[in-house]
Amino acid sequence: MAAGYAELLRTRHAARLLAGTLIGRLPNATGPLAVVLFTRAEGGSYVLAGVLSAVYGVFNAIGQPLLGRAVDVYGQPRVMLPSAAVSALGMALLAVVGLDPLPVAYAAMVIAGFFTPPLEGGLRALWPGVLKRADRVHAAYALDAVAQEVLFAVGPLLVTTCVALWSERWALLVINVIGVLGALSVVASPPSREWRSAPREAHWLGALRSSGMLVLIASFFFVGLALGSIAVAAVAYADEHGGGMVSSYLLSALGVGALLGGVVYGARQWPGHPENRLRLLVALLALGYLPLALTPGVVGMTLLTGVAGVFLAPALACAFVVVDGHAPRGTVTEAFSWLVTTFGVGSALGMTVVGPAVERGGPAAGFGVAGAGGVAALLVLLSTKRFLSPGGRGLVSDAVQVTAENDRNEAAQPGFRAGHQA
After folding, report:
1. The domain 199-422 is classified under which CATH number: 3.20.20.60, 3.40.50.80, 1.20.1250.20, 3.40.190.100?
2. Spatial CB neighbours of 385, under 8 Å, sequence gap ≥ 6
3. Does domain 15-196 have CATH number 3.30.70.1060?
4. Which of 9, 66, 203, 204 is 20 to 30 A away from residue 147, measured at CA?
5. Rounded Cα distance, 37 and 29, in Å
6. Interacting residues of 101 by C-beta distance below 8 A, sequence separation 6+
7. 358 in Cβ contact with 347 (< 8 Å)
8. How far does the chain reach from its first CA to its final CA, in angstroms?
9. Rounded distance, CA 22 to CA 20, Å?
């Protein structure tokens, strides 16, 4: 298992691209927390802190697919680095000006959120050209999903460390400077500079003209909703079971489960079509979420959340493979960005809708929202089989046939078309 990942990372440029992308995404992973800490340090209320973070998140969701489309048209360096710099300047504006005048603070969040570079989608567009082999690409998607879990665990620690060493203002500045350096490392690499998207048909819907993409987006919206609701329900559960570190135990167990699942999933090649495998993985994910509503004691609940996390990273890794098969030519970065954005929007909505459920029915009702989200994600995939058919043959509007994104001659590409294992 370890040997397979080591072989992947020894591939020329692979380790640099993965590390640079993770470092470049630090501002995105830590932005909401850093903004909340800074707002409170400046004397702002929790309500204001939440609103500023929400503005950042909303405009991040808007900007990712649009910037992804720009990357597909103009290439990575022309879009990634300038957008990273502008996003960092937005955060710097907040750090320097503070909360007064408030409209400037809101404008800073709009700029920082909207111009967050689509590094995540960009990396997944680069993997096939860098790794060449289908089994390595498959492992890279799994490793990417695992690394994302690590990023979201380590990122907040870095923010709080910066606050302890310096201040909330410096935390904003330092994290975003690091993010720009990460983006620079990626776009200065030969694969990023040389990468070109396949020729694309001009269409205002872009990646969304693929019915298969719409199915994926709808399904993972509900996966995100389930995950967001778990975060809030875990806090409610902790309040009824001694408070303290209980919610941390649950969320850490969820993350550890995802790490283990992702590592194991990416360590081998799986037979069959990825579309069929995705349905199975989402079914197992839903089955993992449903028992959380039982809310047993702390030890039992920690074990349940660990099991619930096992299939998250594999489902995400498999979804990345499916995206490559269903994204219309010339839209791969945009397509990945849409999936990431929708997952994030679903998570934010889950955090919102679970509140009333917890108020009425306690933690069990909150975790019930997570189970319902998992079931809804599965139902979307099961009810739309004809649109998400194996090998990227889903229906596409305007009679546009989906082909392998990274094949300039429209030949079958390992890991992205029917008849290949991925």
Report:
1. 1.20.1250.20
2. none
3. no
4. 66
5. 14
6. none
7. no
8. 16
9. 5
Q: CA geometry: angle at 248 spanning 245 and 252, to 5°? A: 145
Domain locations in the chain as residue ranges? 15-196, 199-422
CA distance 303 to 286: 16
- Model pTM score: 0.73
CB 30 within 8 A of CB 153: no
Helix axes 26-41, 14-24, angle to 10 degrees: 20
Structure tokens at 255: 């993350």
Element (H, E) at 119: helix 119-131
Q: How far is CA 201 from the centre of its chain?
A: 27
**Distance between CA atoms of residues 224 and 61, nearest Å:** 13
Instruction: Identify the CA nearest to 187 among candidates 419, 17, 393.
Output: 17
CA distance 20 to 194: 17
pLDDT tens for each residue of the chain, 422 residues long: 555 677 788 899 999 999 999 999 989 888 877 887 898 889 888 778 878 887 888 898 889 888 988 998 899 999 999 999 999 999 999 999 999 899 999 999 999 999 999 998 889 889 888 988 877 887 888 887 777 777 776 777 788 788 888 998 999 999 999 999 999 999 999 999 998 876 656 555 667 778 888 999 999 999 989 988 888 788 788 888 877 678 778 888 888 888 888 888 887 778 888 899 999 999 999 999 999 999 999 999 999 999 999 999 899 889 888 887 787 877 777 888 888 888 878 887 887 788 888 888 989 999 999 999 999 999 999 998 888 877 544 433 333 333 344 433 333 333 333 333 33
Number of H helices, E strands in the chain: 16, 0
Q: Are 282 and 335 in contact (CB under 8 A)?
A: no
Could you count the other beta carbons within 10 Å of the beta carbon of residue 47? Answer: 9
